Amino acid sequence: MILEAQHINKYFLEPEKHQVLKNISLSISEGELVSVFGESGSGKSTLLYILSTLDMDFEGVLKIHNQDIKDLTSSSLTDFRNKHIGFVYQFHYLLPEFDVLQNVMLPAMKLSEKNKEEIKKDALILLEEVGMKDFAKRPSYQLSGGQQQRVAIARALINDPSLIVADEPTGNLDQKNSELIFELLKGITGSRNKAVVMATHNPKIYLNSHRSIEMIDGFIRL
């Protein structure tokens, strides 16, 4: 089991206190792509922020690799997140001043568990896997939206995390590129035995995921 959440509750305090996640319990295993879908305001993104450890202000238990996340100090949590969780967002967040290869290498350079040449080798392998190796030296701002998102997936994988959290990763893409990004994310659950949890509005994605979770007014319907 990669991730286990038990009785997660989340409140927003402004403009007045209200509950946005209500007794959420779920688990995600290796080799599984789980889609979270529902109307805007149903709590999808809020849930993903908690599952990715970016929001720690919640009630309940969150375990990743059987590690209770709330037992970690702030610095330990940052290290844990960098090592075990990869992120893919609706917007790619590539740095325009760096080329494609440098963007992919950045999280591993920050983690500092390998030397620069080892990281470069890993990055080139990942770029080949997502079909972007020929663009390694191209400035990131010269890429199309679909190409940028493929690079973002390679970047998310550079530290070999077991969990990939993707928040609407196809939201800004056309149908062809949306299908390509989905197939890449689904493929890495098999080829790299990762767990992927992603928020989406796209029926083609949640109907073709290994498992789908519908959110309605802060609750989940499995």
Q: Please give the number of β-strands.
A: 10
C-alpha geometry: globular
Could you list the spans in which at least 5 consecutive residues all have pLDDT below 50?
none
CATH class annotation of one domain? Alpha Beta
The end-to-end distance, rounded to whole angstroms, is: 18 Å
Oligomeric grouping of the chains: single chain
Mean pLDDT: 93
Q: Helical segment tally? A: 7
Strand content: 25-35%
Q: Can you say what the CATH homologous superfamily of one domain is? A: P-loop containing nucleotide triphosphate hydrolases
Per the CATH scheme, the topology name of one domain is Rossmann fold
Class inferred from helices and paired strands: alpha/beta
Provide key terms for this protein.
alpha/beta, Rossmann fold, 6-stranded mixed sheet, 4-stranded antiparallel sheet, globular
Describe the structure in your own words.
36% of the residues lie in helices and 26% in strands. With 222 residues, the chain is an alpha/beta fold. It has a domain at 32-42 and 79-221: Rossmann fold. A hairpin with a 2-residue loop joins strand 9 (211-216) and strand 10. Helix 5 (145-157) packs parallel to helix 6. The chain is globular, with a radius of gyration of 17 Å.
List the topology elements.
Layout: E1 3-12, E2 18-28, E3 33-37, H1 44-51, E4 59-64, E5 67-68, H2 74-84, E6 85-88, H3 100-111, H4 116-129, H5 145-157, E7 163-167, H6 175-191, E8 195-200, H7 203-206, E9 211-216, E10 219-221
Parallel strand pairs: 3-8, 3-9, 6-7, 7-8
Antiparallel strand pairs: 1-2, 1-4, 4-5, 9-10
Helix pairs in contact: 3-4, 3-5, 4-5, 5-6
